[in-house]
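Q: 26S proteasome non-ATPase regulatory subunit 9, please. Structure only.
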Amino acid sequence: MTTNMEELMTKKKEIEDQISEYGEILEQQGGVGMTEALVDKEGYPRADIDLYSVRISRRKIICLQNDHKAVMKEIEEELHRIHAKAREEKESQIQEADTGIKVSAPALQPFAKIDRVDHGSPAFTASLRVGDQVLRFGSISRTNFKTLQDVAKVVQHSIDKSISVTVLRDGKEQRLTLVPQKWSGQGFLGCNIVPL
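A: Structure for 26S proteasome non-ATPase regulatory subunit 9:
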């Protein structure tokens, strides 16, 4: 709760307490309330009540009720401000989170391309195509790629195991699963990879 809201809530309670106090005075004066007549049937001031106290209490209650309405309006406006601020902060946090994701996970850049795929090979089965640009090959990406020997090491350690391969094809990323294994042709992939 904001400091301004706390002050408004305190003010609201003080007004309600005062209205209650003046209401008790009216109750003590024969329960005349806010509308009961202050004269008897003959038109004379009632002798069974303190007319001055009743009139003052009624006047005070009317003023306090107006003050109460004004404070309630201020509280409503403050609530709108609090909710609007909370929404802005939440949207700001979402934007910051989005920015953080973009910074921590930059778009992958190609480091090699496929210039040959043998029919029936593991590469062919994995849907690799000539012209595919390699964005990620297992744990290798543009940031840590040095030579094709890096790719060869990944293949050697992944015989008969799945390797996640991400390629750029026609401007779109494609995530493929390649399983290096022995086949009727040479090597374990059946494709040729050249560095960019």
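A: Brief note, in case it's useful. Residues 101-105 have pLDDT under 50 and may be disordered.
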